[in-house]
Each structure stands twice: as C-alpha cells, then as structure tokens.
Amino acid sequence: MRVIDWTARGLLVAGIMGSAYPAFAAELVAHRAVYELELSRSQSSADLAGLRGRMVLEWAGSSCEGYTLTQRLVTEISDSDGGRMVRDLRMSSWESGDGDEFVFEMKRYVNNVLDETISGSVERSDGTAIVHYTSPADGELALPSSVVFPSEFVRDVIDAAESGKTLVTAEVFEGAETDKYFQVSVFTGRSSVAETDLAKLSGDGKLLAGEASWPVQVSYFLPNDLQGVPDYQVSYRLFSNGVSSNMKLDYGDVVIDGRLTELTYLSSDPC
Questions:
Q1: CA nearest 55: which of 250, 256, 239, 268?
Q2: What pLDDT score was predicted for residue 202?
Q3: In the chain, which residue ranges form alpha helices assigned H by DSSP?
Q4: What DSSP letter does each residue of 14-48 carry, written as one string?
Q5: Is 253 exposed, middle or buried (0-12, 13-18, 19+ CB in 10 A)?
Q6: Burial level of 138, CB count in 10 A (0-12/13-18/19+)?
Q7: 189/81 Cα distance (integer angstroms)
Q8: What's the pTM?
Q9: In DSSP terms, which residues pair with 106 in a beta bridge?
C-alpha cells in the first residue's frame, strides 16, 4: 500500500500575517470540535480504494496565558488489493499569547505501532527564529523571523477577513515537519451563511448561527519552489470565534472531506 503522508499541517486551520490590520485583534473561543472524514475522490496513482476517519481538535487558553492545541486524527485506509492500514496522529502544542514562543509534540502510529515522533520548541526574537528539536535529538531548523504559528494563524486570518482583505501570504510552521516550513497563500471570500447544517450538529453547534463566517482557501508551497504548484491545499469555512467547518483537504491525487459533527464550548479564564 502506498503510504500517504497524513500530517497535522493539512488539518490545522491555516492563517495569515500582514500589516494592513492590527495584530491579534481576534480572541479564540475555547472549544472541542469533532470531524468525520471521508474520501471525496482519488486518482489511480494513489492506489486508494477507501478512507474513513475522525479528527478531534481541542483549543484552549487565551492571549494572556497562551493557547494550548491538542489534536487526534485516526484514519482507516484501504487499497485496491484489499489491504488495510490504520494511521493514528496525535499532536499537542502550546503557543504564547504574543505568538513568539511555540512548543510542540507530534506522534504518528501505524497499525498501533509508534512510527515517528517529532518534538521541540522555537522562540522568535532579535530577528531570528530557530527550531530546536528534542526528537530527532539535537536537530535544528532555521525559520524566517516573520514565521507564524497555529494560534497566530487563526487570529490573523480572522482579522484579515473582518477587514475585507482577500489575499495574503505568510511563512508557516506547525511542528509536523523536521526539515521544512511552508509559504502560504490565503484567499478569503465574502461573509455569507455557512453551508453546514447547524441544527444537526451535536452539542453547541447551533450557537454558531449568530457568528460571522467566511469561506477560506489555503495553498501551501514549499520554500524556494519555482514551479508555482502548491504541495497541498485546504479549504474550509472559518467562523469569527475560531471554529471551522466544511473542510476539504486536497493533496492532488487524493481529496478528503471533513464534516463538523459535534462542537462543545469549553470554559476558560478571560484576560
């Protein structure tokens, strides 16, 4: 079976950074969201007959105490010969409220066996940003000083959407890679009614009905790539409180749909 590179970067809500709007104006709501994943389409080159799975994402904290993000993604993949594989991705991170510190850990299991661990930290200061990995041991990765991390991503993309900005670019690091960051282009559409059937969502989902939301498409490019073709793309609907729905993950030869099925707002200490 061809092993598809499922990583946290494709399922984290992407964000942007720019100078046309005030930094960190948006405050994210603490929440737990459950998404059902299914195969939308695949090309023969992917040798993928079926895919189903679930992702649980929990966002907690505030701009004062920092943001904690935990995520678990389990998928069952079948190929054209009847082979099956279960992939289990677990990721956790903490990011300071000012967006300058980031601590992360990612564990990937294949058929219940630990396949890879990536962990480390990065601090952006004095015009530098260097990732110090604890796993793999003693690894380092130099990042642009303008790099942004997950919570800052979401807060900035909401600011851009509210200000009417439709296209922004950024350098993004999410802690799922040992050798690269991504250059990102973000397209944001006009605010409109979400396609998600909020009445059918479990938990607090129906409370989204009063939130502004925008369609967003994010294209991830490898640094210094001159072909102009994204490594992968993610589209979703982003609500003004940081919740996302209607995900579509496009890896070129494989496209996956992510449907929000349950939303729970969590208690948090306000600033």
A1: 256
A2: 81
A3: 150-162
A4: P----SSS-TT---PPPEEEEEEEEEEEE-GGG--
A5: middle
A6: exposed
A7: 41
A8: 0.85
A9: 91, 118
Omega before 136 within 30 of 0, i.e. cis:
yes
Closest among 219, 203, 216, 103 to 154, alpha carbons compared: 216
d(CA 68, CA 134): 19
- Phi/psi for 206 (5° steps) reads -65, -20
State how far the Cα of 63 lies from the Cα of 271, in Å rounded to an integer.
7
Number of Cα atoms under 13 Å in the Cβ half of residue 181? 23
pLDDT in tens, the chain (271 residues): 334 444 444 554 433 223 233 344 456 788 999 999 999 887 766 678 889 999 999 988 887 888 899 999 999 998 878 889 999 999 999 999 888 999 999 999 999 999 999 999 999 888 889 999 999 888 899 999 889 888 887 788 888 888 888 988 888 898 888 888 999 999 999 887 655 567 678 888 878 877 888 999 999 998 887 788 898 999 998 888 888 888 999 988 889 999 999 999 988 776 6
CA–CA distance, 174 with 194 (Å, rounded to integer): 27
Tallying the residues shown for the chain, one arrives at 271
Tokens of 44: 């023969």
**Boundaries of every domain in the chain:** 8-265
- Which residues 6+ apart lie within 8 Å of 63 measured at CB? 24, 27, 97, 98, 155, 271
How many helices (DSSP H) and strands (DSSP E) are in the chain?
Answer: 1, 15
Q: What is the rounded CA–CA span in Å between residue 78 and residue 52?
A: 9
- Biggest alpha carbon–alpha carbon distance for the chain: 55
